[in-house]
Structure formats: C-alpha cells, structure tokens
From TrEMBL:
Residues 23-209 form the Reticulon domain. This is Reticulon-like protein. The keyword Endoplasmic reticulum applies. It is a multi-pass membrane protein. The chain crosses the membrane at residues 33-49, 55-75, 131-159. It is found in: Endoplasmic reticulum membrane. One of its GO terms (cellular component) is endoplasmic reticulum membrane. The lineage of its organism: Eukaryota, Viridiplantae, Streptophyta, Embryophyta, Tracheophyta. Its main location: endoplasmic reticulum. The keyword Endoplasmic reticulum applies. Keywords: Endoplasmic reticulum, Membrane, Transmembrane, Transmembrane helix. GO terms for biological process: response to bacterium. Pfam families: Reticulon (PF02453). It comes from Fraxinus pennsylvanica.
Amino acid sequence: MGSSDRLFSRQRTVHQILGGGLAADVILWRQKNLTAGILVVTLAAWVVFEISGYTLLSLSSSVFLLLFTILFLWAKSAAILNRPSPPIPHLHISEEVINEAATLIRYHINALLSIFEDIALGRDSEMFIKVALSLLLISVIGGVTDFLTLGYTSLFIVLTVPALYERYEDCIDTYALKSYRKLQLLYIRFDAVCISKVRKWILEAKKFR
C-alpha cells in the first residue's frame, strides 16, 4: 500500500510516529511483560480505589505520610545507633530543565491561543467544528464517569488501540479513508449551505454600519 493510500498520507510506520523508543515498544506490545505489568498494576490500583473508597488525594497523602515517617524515624535511629542514614540521593532540579519545560509549556500555550483566536475571529470553520465536537465528547464522557475510571480507560485505549491498528493497518486505512472522503463531502456541503450564508450575513451587516 502506497503512502497516498495511508491515513493522512503518512510515510512513517506507527512505531516511528510514536517515537521509536521504549514508549513506542510498550504501546505496541513489543515489551509484552512490561505492557501487561502496567495494565495489571493500573487495574489493581483502580480496583483498590473503587473498593476502598479512597480518593487519589487521600491515598497519596497517606502514602507520603507513611513514607516520610519511616524515613524520619530511620534517620533518627541511625544517628543514635551509629548506623548509615537512609540512602536518599540529592534531589535537585537544574535551571536548564526548568527553562526547557517552560519553553515547551509556552509553545503549547501559544499554539492553543492561536487556535482560540482563529476560532473566535471566524477564520477556521473546520477547526471550530473539531473543537466543538471534542468538547462535546469530553462533556458527555465527564457526565457518565469519574476521573479515575476515565484515566484507566484512557490508558487501556493507549495500550490497545495502536497495537490493534498496527496489526490490521491496511484494512483500517482503507475503510478510514473512505469514511474521511465522505466526511469531506459532507463538510463542503455544510460549508456551502450554512457557513457561507453566515459569512454573507456578517459582510452585509458590516456594510450597513
């Protein structure tokens, strides 16, 4: 199958798109034990939260309280009994790491602001539809599930959908491209019937001012 027959006309493999490193190996089940372990551990954590009634904040606070208490008593008893202190490395975040993180955050925030500006000023109708549908989907999902369940479900999807896509890539691309072309035709009709009329009304309103 040529690149023009691939979804989004891509030329890279799924593994390359995901970065080609350990994360891609985990997502695509090339590190089966590690991927299965992540799924089992997160499933166990989800079950514990659901059964115990703990929230993420309360459980995290309890775990950190227990950890700090153990380390504090260990350090005090080590000083009294002439024993080695807890093997805690020096924890420090360099200025370079902070600057890189700030640059990355600023880049993404500016990209979001640019999208917001394009939508607010009516420059990008296609992006408006995408954002509106995404927000509607998030609203619907948020109304039927809690954050923890959503997080586990999202992780499950990340660790299963790309692997299934890679396995049945040709078949999925064929049907997805057909559906995408049909959606493009529907969008062209919608733009011609609705959005173009709105633009004309706005231009006419400006003329009468």
